Amino acid sequence: MTTSAIEAVNKLPEPVARRGLTEAQWRTLMNSLYPGAKAESVLMVVDYCAARKLDPLKRPCHIVPMEVKDPKTGAYAWRDVVLPGIYELRTTAQRSGLYLGHSAWDYGPLETVAGVSAPSWCAVTVYRWNREVGVRAEYPVRVLFKEVVALNKERKANSRWAKAPVQMLTKCTEAAGLREAFPDEIGGEQTAEEMDGQRAIDVQTVEEKPVPARPDGLDDWYLDLKAAADEGIDKLEESFAQSPEAFRTYLTTHAPDAWKGLKDHALEKGGPR
Description:
3 domains, 3-stranded mixed β-sheet, extended
């Protein structure tokens, strides 16, 4: 095989190269961290980590096949979804500089649920430093096993939960506590551990409605509105109220940032509001 032929074989796909990944990184992602996953799904991981400023080689998130509902037909179809792991939540909390750890785990009495003997609940308190008042804030949470255990088609605990029910319950409880204590840093997305075996009934493909045609004369009207904004907020609101409804609706519905920009500009120019 010639040198040029070898280079052609080893050349990274354009979407991979565009993201700045080396051959070693790409092979590690595809063959070691996410073996068997589709290339486009692994690229979703790379993009997710870039957005969250995470290292994809540390596997902070997971590729989870989930059933997603089609709003048109009501049918479910399988789709790969990228979900954070408990490692990502820990990392995000630590990066805040405010995470002070958590209490010891507390477990409820054993009970049999979905064919598995496990603690009926798990509780923990997450600690966060509150800079405003200079105290340690406490965020206690309790998670019920029966509400988070993942079930198979026979309505029994799936293999992962059947094998390690306490570990899975503990991870779900930790995730709930970290979200409670760090809502802005972490957000409301559930972890792969929590969504293991669950149907993504709340994740739906939404049909985008087409943007209606721009009303005739909209551009000239917008220039008049901008001139009114130069005179202050009262003049802008007066001019807006006297404008055709079609213009007002189009601006506030399909160009809300432009409308906000006009109001901010008008407020700078003067006015009581």
